[in-house]
Amino acid sequence: MSVVFVGVDPSSKNGESATVWLSTETGELFVQSYRATDEEIRECKEAGSGPGHSTEVPPHETIIRIPVSVLQILQEACSASGPHLG
């Protein structure tokens, strides 16, 4: 798999960088960010999920919190993913 760096949270401190990468083969995004707290996970579960989907988080998945300052980087990554799917 070939992965390219897309961007890092411009407001983050050293060692605490929300970061986004893009797979040039699949168009999938990889995001490094803050783990959601137990309270945030509980609130997500209370908010519900789509029909036919459980609000339980499987052991191989997690909920992350993405800072608002990273949303533009995610938009750039989504825009860039199209041409890479070839």
From TrEMBL:
Keywords carried by this UniProt record: Plasmid
Name listed for the protein in its UniProt record: Uncharacterized protein
Lineage, opening ranks: Bacteria, Bacillati, Actinomycetota, Actinomycetes, Kitasatosporales
